[in-house]
Amino acid sequence: MKKYRDKSPEEVIKEVTIEMIERGIKLGRKKGRTLTISKTSGGKGVDINTLNPQTEAGRANLEAFFKPVKRHYTFSGLGEPEEKNAINWRVLNVPAGRRLLLVLQVAFSMLLKGSPFKNKYYRWMGAHIGRNTEIMLFVWLDHFRPELVFIGDYTLVGAFSRITVHAYEGCGRFRYGLVEIGSHCTIGAGTGMGVIKIEDHVRTLPGTTLSPYLLRVKNGSVVGWAPPAVQRAEEHQTGDSITTS
C-alpha cells in the first residue's frame, strides 16, 4: 500500500498501532468493552481511550506512549470468544474488505516463483522488499499486516518459509510487531519466524524455527542445528571384509 511506502519500520508500526487504537475505541464503545494496549507481551496495559488521537489530551498521551517506539505491542480485553460483546481481533485489525483481499493476495503469492514481478506484487500488498531479493515458492507471508515486513537487498527466502507478524494468544489477547530481515541473507527452506530483527549476512539452516527463541540475530550469524559430529573413518582389514569405525 502506498501509504506505508518509503517509511521506516518505526514509522510504520506507529501508524499501524494508531489505526488499531482508533478502531478499538469505536468497537469498545459499541460493545461496551475497555481495551488496553501494552508495550510488552505481558505487562500492564494502557486504556486505549486515553490515547484517542481525536482529542488534545489523547494526542499528548500518544506522543508519550510512543517514546520510544517499540518493536511489538499487545492488545488485551477483547473478551472471550463466547461472550456476547466480545470483539474479534481480526475485526480490530482491519476492515472486512481488506482482510478478504489480503487472504486472496497471500494465497496467490505462494504460487509465484521468486522473480522481480513477485517482489512488485509484495510491495503492492504493502510489504517492504529490497532490490534483487528472491522469495521462493510457497513462502507464507502473514496476511495480518504485510506492511510490518521489511526484507533487505540481495536476500533469498527459501521455499515453505513462514513469516509471521502477529500471534493470537486466546481469550481476547493478541500481539503483533515488526519482522526485519537484512541484506545479503539466506533464509533456508522451511524457516519459521515471528517478530524478529535479522541483521545483514545471516544464514538460517533449512527447517530452523527462530520464534519465540530469538528476537534478534546478529550480523553474519548462522542459525540452526549444531553440525553433526564427523569422525574420520579408519579402515580395518579383517580377512576378506573391511570394517570402519
Return the average pLDDT rounded to an integer: 92
Helix-residue proportion: 25-40%
Q: The biggest beta sheet, please? A: 5 strands, antiparallel
Treating each run of at least 4 consecutive H or I residues as one helix, how many helices?
5
CATH domain fold name of the largest domain:
UDP N-Acetylglucosamine Acyltransferase, domain 1
Number of separate strands: 20
Oligomerization category of the chains in this entry: single chain
Radius of gyration: 22 Å
Output the structural class: alpha/beta
**How are the strands of the biggest sheet laid out side by side?**
2-1-3-11-10
- First-to-last CA distance: 60 Å
How many domains?
2
Poorly predicted segments: 241-245
The fraction of residues in strands falls at: 15-25%
What is the C-level CATH assignment of the largest domain?
Mainly Beta
Descriptive labels:
5 helices; five-stranded parallel sheet; alpha/beta; five-stranded antiparallel sheet; disordered C terminus; about 240 residues
Outline:
The chain has 245 residues and is an alpha/beta fold. It is built from five helices and 20 strands.
Outline the structure in words.
- The protein has about 240 residues and is α/β, with parallel strands linked by helices.
- It has two domains: about 1-95, no CATH class; about 95-225, 3 Solenoid (UDP N-Acetylglucosamine Acyltransferase, domain 1).
- About 25% of the residues lie in helices and about 20% in strands.
- It has five helices and 20 strands.
- A five-stranded antiparallel β-sheet has the order 2-1-3-11-10, covered by helices on one side. The protein has a five-stranded parallel β-sheet with strand order 4-7-12-15-17. Strands 5-8-13-16-18 form a five-stranded parallel β-sheet.
- The longest helix has 23 residues, at about 10-30.
- It is globular, with a radius of gyration of 22 Å.
- Residues about 240-245 have low confidence and may be disordered.
